[in-house]
Amino acid sequence: MSGFWSWFIITLVVLNIAGCAWLLWWTAKRRPGDPAPEQTSHYWDGDITEYNKPLPKWWINLFWLTIIFAIGYLAWYPGLGNFAGYGGWTSAGQHDADVAAAEARMAPVFARFQGRSIDDLANEPDAVALGRSVFGNFCATCHGSDARGARGFPNLADGSWNWGGTPDQILTSILDGREGVMAPMGAVLGSEQAITEAVVYTQSLSGRRVDPQLAAAGRSRFMVCAACHGVDGTGNPALGAPDLTDGVWTYGGDFDSIRHSIVHGRHGQMPAHGPIIGETRARLVGAYLWSLGQDTPARE
């Protein structure tokens, strides 16, 4: 926070406290020259008039105690601009302390899974169940509670892996994250006809029924894509280039979706979760995903 805004907040807080104290002092008792109750001409319910019901002393003292408490609170805890308070408390420090305490409580639960391979953990029901729980907390926002993803977020339960589906590759994806970039190829292909042919040929790679003449013409167009996806379209896990023959489409396999991918490109990023959940939890999540992908055919 800049010095200006720090002093602005300090001034605002001090003025508010001082204003409350002044208002309490000013209204706590009658002043010389105040009219008598019967002289105000303000009556309610017949016999209730102004100035005849002053606040009890204990009530006024409670207001003063509230002001004193507020001053003490602002001295001990942060609340006056950049002043950190004499107590040294911060929300970040409290968060870190709570996390450390929770980690200490959970350490025995995760200890027996530490360092074990994903495929080994996948054979243990307790590990898979724990991995599903961790997945639900940290991964379901993007990939869905059932790990089947959504448009733009890969299905992790179908056995199709853009970056490779070995235990080590899955663990690397979770720990370090991935960034997939599909370059826009509209300008490279040049014409709308060429783009259409490339789209139709791409659809044909997964066995779809398409116009055979457009698909045949698109084969040569596809050569600009072969550097990443391979001549046969089966992809390249080292680059995260998807297999275009398995019928699995992260952004949709209809004509318009594929056309958009080719013309405008795509950019997807999987954030690194190693710093967030640690290696043992990452292994458990990997075991859960590995168990989902076994003997599961790729879906159209």
Over the alpha carbons, how many angstroms does the gyration radius reach? Answer: 34 Å
Fourth-level CATH superfamily of the largest domain: Cytochrome c-like domain
CATH class of the largest domain: Mainly Alpha
Major beta sheet summary? 2 strands, antiparallel
Q: Indicate the CATH topology of the largest domain.
A: Cytochrome Bc1 Complex, Chain D, domain 2
Query: Could you report the average pLDDT, rounded to the nearest whole number?
Result: 89
What string gives the helices and strands in order? HEEHHHHHHEHHHHHEH
- The total strand number stands at 4
Provide the number of structural domains: 3
Count of alpha and pi helical runs: 13
Order of adjacent strands in the largest pleated sheet: 1-2
Query: Which structural class do you get from the secondary structure elements?
Result: mainly alpha
Shape: elongated
Portion in helices? 40-55%
Strand content: under 5%
User: Residue ranges: pLDDT <50 for 5 or more in a row?
Assistant: 296-300
